[in-house]
Design brief:
14 helices, 0% strand, elongated, mainly alpha
């Protein structure tokens, strides 16, 4: 077989993959592996790359065992080709960890992610984006396992990495603050969770001010005014605003309700409802949940 044939098979397979035509993608990826393995050898890096793509296809189809087998094939080649401590090995380990996570096998996922993090810590800069993703994945697993102390440690590490790369007031930090607030909330530390959620809300509102208004940044922060402006922007730019505060407002309201401050709970639930009505269809389940909470 001429190498160009393999290249064409790969391109066809990738096109089917991108179009979510997964059966065809599998067929052409397998043909590529057979031909490339015979021409270049079974431990060639191109074979590893397509084994990894096969793993993704099987993963998307929900075929856990076949996905794991394909990823492990890729991992074996990566270790032989690049060595144990390489970026390629760490990336493949993260894919295997994600497969275990999606299959609800949190202990297996944690073990694999920790192996990947060990490699990344040795070979990458401390603030590398790959390391950030792995640390975040580990934090999510500890949250799922209700190991809130460890989850909090890893989310704080995520926050440190983001702050070093982006600066503290960057809007991408908001989801991490929400995750920290969620862990604190689930762990019953309501007042700390409230502080974190309020800081998340402040950053969301600040991001909105930058995106949509020529505001006087020297003005004292006024929550009611900022929320009103943000609500107007949400109505105007419906579907395009990436920093809606609905999730954070609802959680703040929930905490006030749980600590017995019903007046503030009602205030934040009402704000939540206004944003949901501006952002979603009337039949959306988010609106239903908020209405049910208000009337309980």
């Amino acid at each position: 077989f001429h190498p160009d044939v393999a290249a064409t098979l790969f391109n066809i397979g990738q096109t089917h993959h991108q179009k979510a035509e997964l059966n065809f993608a599998l067929e052409y990826y397998n043909m590529f592996i057979t031909i490339t393995g015979e021409i270049l050898g079974w431990f060639h890096n191109d074979v590893a790359a397509v084994f990894s793509l096969l793993g993704q296809v099987h993963h998307q189809r929900g075929n856990y065992n076949k996905a794991l087998h394909s990823y492990e094939q890729a991992l074996a080649i990566d270790k032989t080709t690049y060595g144990q401590y390489s970026r390629k090995v760490a990336i493949t380990l993260n894919k295997i960890g994600g497969l275990h996570y999606d299959n609800g096998k949190f202990d297996e996922a944690l073990h694999v992610y920790e192996k990947g993090l060990h490699i990344e810590t040795k070979i990458l800069e401390p603030n590398n984006s790959n390391t950030f993703i792995t640390v975040k994945n580990i934090a999510e697993i500890h949250t799922c396992k209700a190991d809130y102390g460890k989850a909090l440690d890893f989310y704080k590490r995520v926050l440190c990495l983001q702050t070093e790369n982006l600066g503290y007031d960057h809007p991408d930090i908001v989801p991490t603050l929400d995750n920290i607030g969620n862990v604190l909330h689930q762990n019953g530390t309501h007042h700390e969770a409230l502080q974190v959620y309020q800081e998340s809300l402040r950053l969301r509102l600040k991001a909105n001010t930058k995106d949509h208004f020529e505001s006087d940044t020297s003005k004292k922060f006024d929550l009611e005014t900022q929320l009103s402006e943000f609500l107007d922007a949400t109505k105007k730019f419906q579907g395009s605003n990436d920093h809606r505060p609905t999730f954070t407002l609802f959680n703040i309201a929930q905490i006030y309700y749980e600590i017995g401050d019903l007046e503030l709970a009602m205030k934040y639930f009402n704000w939540t409802l206004q944003f949901e009505k501006a952002s979603f269809e009337e039949s959306d389940e988010n609106i239903t949940i908020t209405l049910l909470t208000l009337f309980l």
